Automatic annotation (TrEMBL):
NCBIfam families: PPR (TIGR00756). The gene is LOC107427122. Belongs to the PPR family. PCMP-H subfamily. Keywords: Repeat. This is Pentatricopeptide repeat-containing protein At5g40405. Pfam families: DYW_deaminase, E_motif, Eplus_motif, PPR, PPR_2.
Length: 615
DNA sequence: CTAGGGTTAG
């Protein structure tokens, strides 16, 4: 075995690279000690580096071995910095940087050192360390290293300092495609997608990664249509599409709720045999979940051989969003059995699941376990979920107590959950309090006014209703115009409230009349009171036909084959009247109607909705 | 023997 000492890669190193458990590492370590191989400083350093690079979960073991290493080399230190830059405690990289500077062997940091340190700073998003590392880069004369340059752009983008990105980029005489892509990505990340696109269009050569960066940029800032358009352009130009790109494409489909396009993307992945990575599988689950096809989402989920916390959380969030609170909680148990550690995001779904199912005590236990068992500090979202949990169960006083005992200042969302319950349980007094608090926090929160006015309308207090309306006018509170989208054969049809510009509007109008006729026959009386002032106020239109999702449903009925569910994505929450009407339509027309509003899904079937009337 | 740009959940 000792004859192998001179070979660059010792067989033990290969073993380390493939070992995942601490025990395996310890065995190799013992083996090396037995063979006296670790007296060789070079091999010991390589051993430390290999553990660090290939066993990121066992970094403390690298530290342990390193402590037995009398004179680590620069290579060893660099490897430790690199490993820590990717760990959950990136700041520890600096410990090794200091050791380089203080070393007895007169080590001095090299281009590798700084490259890794820059990545550490990006990871840290720390406002001071980034620029000081940048200074050190200049001081040591590495500012012309292209690896470090692209790293600096990435780092400043993570900090949100777009002008610094531009400055670094501007000082590169002939930036290569990597640095050009980095600046495109930085602009998109920092909110200037328009400029990112200009730079992208000006790139003399665009490789697949550059395309992906631009598509991802669009997807991340919510410009999903642009993301898909660029993806189609990419295909027309014959650029090779890979699995990373498809993650962004699926993400765009998720946001749009575009099931047809999402299905197409899935088929494309299979047709082109793109590797089904963990990330890609997770993106697929998210796409199906956000498009309302939870069966398919779970099919993908169960088919995945490896799942991480993102995968589980995506599935769990999809289940609660689609009204399967109980299944979400079951999945949470399985996840823990699988040894996956939940994080803050996971708990949002857990608490929402409890809320939907009405498990107040269990929810409380999960909430308490966040800190006690998992060391997770509850965030505003979790407090909001707890308020919703109590509120939904009708325990409004407990909800209020919970808000009042929050260690952080309650946000509009917490009061909003209470206000929503006040509408459900017709509690005028508490509703007034909640909406006053919301307006204090967000003077132009349209939803708060609407819910309050609905509470007044329910108690037929019309003076108060018009008073709220006056206040809104005085404060210039504007609501977002309602908009519903549905996809027919992959083509997206958008319906804005009151907009009659659709080429088939005549047919739609006929169908709206037919709906109206059947509803009346079924004994439906338009609930006109709340319509006086609704989530989607529209004064001039006929009360029954005004809201965008009704128009979209009518269009769905005339353009989708019988038996095909109508899938609608709405930018606002569904109003009471539309909810009632949609339930009826699902029965009268024997049609499944799936509406994604801004918070959750409503699956309407046989006159019932999956939300059971609380949303 | 170590490096660069693009990807997922609330």
């Amino acid at each position: 075995m000792s004859s192998l000492r001179c070979i660059a890669k010792h067989p033990a190193i290969s073993l380390i690279e493939s070992s995942t458990t601490l025990n395996e590492l310890k065995q190799i370590h013992t083996q090396l000690l037995v063979n006296s191989l670790l007296n060789d400083h070079h091999l010991l350093g390589q051993f430390v580096a290999s553990i660090a690079l290939h066993n990121p979960n066992n970094l403390y073991y690298s530290n342990h071995v390193l402590s037995q290493c009398p004179n680590p080399t620069l290579f060893t230190f660099n490897s430790m910095i690199r490993a820590y830059s990717k760990s959950s405690t990136p700041h520890k990289s600096f410990h090794f940087y200091k050791r380089i500077l203080r070393s007895d062997d007169n080590l001095s940091p090299d281009n590798y050192t700084f490259n890794f340190l820059v990545r550490t700073c990006a990871q840290l998003s720390a406002r001071e360390t980034g620029p000081s590392v940048h200074c050190a880069v200049v001081k040591h004369g590495f500012e012309n290293d292209p690896h470090i340059q692209s790293g600096l752009i990435f780092m400043y983008a993570e900090l949100g300092w777009l002008s610094s990105c531009h400055q670094v980029f501007g000082e590169i005489p002939e930036p290569d495609v990597v640095c050009q892509t980095a600046i495109v990505s930085a602009c998109a990340k920092c909110g200037d997608v328009g400029f990112a696109r200009e730079l992208f269009d000006k790139m003399p050569q665009r490789d697949p990664i550059a395309w992906n960066a631009m598509i991802a940029g669009y997807a991340q800032c919510g410009k999903s249509r642009e993301a898909l358009n660029l993806f189609h352009l990419m295909q027309m130009e014959g650029v090779k599409v890979n699995q990373v790109c498809m993650v962004s494409v699926l993400s765009a489909c998720s946001h749009l709720g575009a099931l047809d396009q999402g299905r197409w993307a899935h088929a494309y992945i299979e047709r082109n045999k793109l590797p089904m990575t963990l990330t890609l599988g997770t993106a697929l689950i998210d796409m199906y979940a956000k498009c309302g096809d939870m069966n398919k989402a779970m099919e993908v989920f169960w088919g995945m051989s490896e799942k991480n916390v993102y995968t589980w959380s995506s599935a769990m969030s999809g289940l609660t969003m689609n009204g399967f609170g109980k299944k979400c909680l079951e999945l949470f148990s399985l996840m823990k059995q699988d040894g996956i550690h939940p994080n803050e995001v996971t708990f949002v779904s857990v608490l929402r699941g409890c809320s939907v199912v009405g498990l107040v005590d269990e929810g409380r236990e999960h909430f308490d376990s966040m800190r006690r068992v998992y060391g997770l500090e509850p965030q505003l979202e979790h407090y909001g979920c707890m308020v919703d949990l109590y509120s939904r169960a009708g325990r409004l006083d407990e909800a209020l107590n919970f808000i009042n005992s929050m260690p952080i200042k309650p946000h509009a969302g917490a009061w909003g959950a209470l206000l929503n319950a006040c509408r459900m349980y017709k509690n005028r007094e508490l509703g007034e309090l909640a909406s006053r608090k919301i307006v204090e926090l967000e003077a132009k929160n349209h939803g708060a006014y609407v819910l309050l006015s609905n509470i007044y309308a329910d108690s037929k207090n019309w003076d108060a209703v018009s008073n709220v309306r006056e206040i809104m006018k005085a404060k210039g509170v504007r609501k977002l115009p309602g908009c519903s989208v549905l996809e027919i054969d992959g083509e997206v049809h958008e319906f804005l409230v009151g907009d009659k510009s659709h080429p088939r509007y005549n047919e739609i109008e006929l169908m709206l009349g037919e709906i109206s006729r059947r509803l009346k026959l079924a004994g439906y009386v338009a609930n006109t009171n709340p319509v006086l002032f609704d989530i989607e106020e529209e004064e001039k239109e006929d009360a029954l036909c005004q809201h965008s999702e009704k128009v979209a449903i009518a269009f769905g009925l005339i353009s989708l084959r019988e038996g095909m569910p109508i899938r609608i994505v709405k930018n606002l929450r569904v109003c009471w009247d539309c909810h009632d009407v949609t339930k009826l339509i699902s029965r009268l027309f024997n049609r499944e109607i799936i509406v994604r509003d801004r918070n959750r899904f409503h699956h309407f079937k046989d006159g019932e909705c999956s939300c059971k009337g609380y949303w």
